Amino acid sequence: MAEQAHKHDVFQAIADPTRRRLLHLLSDEEMPVTAISGHFAMSRTAVSKHLRVLADAGLVKDRKVGRETRYRLSPEPLLELKRWLAYYERYWENKLSALKRFVEEDDSPGTERHGPLAAAEREPAD
């Protein structure tokens, strides 16, 4: 149950576009909040709140360097999330493959089409 709650926190954390931008920014290098806030049109306090949400979800780590707190990406929860999503991807792959087969069979010569669009195609133009 704790694992599921953690994943929920990760989903909540990445749901916000600002936090996704923060993750992208921190994927390149470790940065202090003052440098991070220079990339956003919001206060340093607001950026810090977003960083706290990411840290609570395990997506960001911080460390003190003198008087400064530096932040960096912690990708492990994203890898867990990727594995979790990969499990469900097979359902989409099966559905998309079935849809592709259906469309290809429907478009093959000699195949009669059904439904309102097919009826409209069969009606002669005035």
UniProtKB/TrEMBL annotation:
Keywords attached to this entry: DNA-binding
PROSITE patterns in the record: HTH_ARSR_2 (PS50987)
Protein name: Winged helix-turn-helix transcriptional regulator
InterPro entries registered for this protein in UniProt: ArsR-like_HTH, HTH_ArsR_DNA-bd_dom, WH-like_DNA-bd_sf, WH_DNA-bd_sf
Segments of this protein annotated with the region Disordered: 103-126
Source organism (scientific name): Paenibacillus arenilitoris
UniProt cross-references to CDD domains, sorted A to Z: HTH_ARSR
NCBIfam families on file: HTH_metalloreg (NF033788)
Zinc-finger recorded as keyword: no
Limits of the HTH arsR-type domain: 1-93
GO molecular function: DNA binding; DNA-binding transcription factor activity
Pfam families: HTH_20
Bias type Basic and acidic residues, positions: 110-126
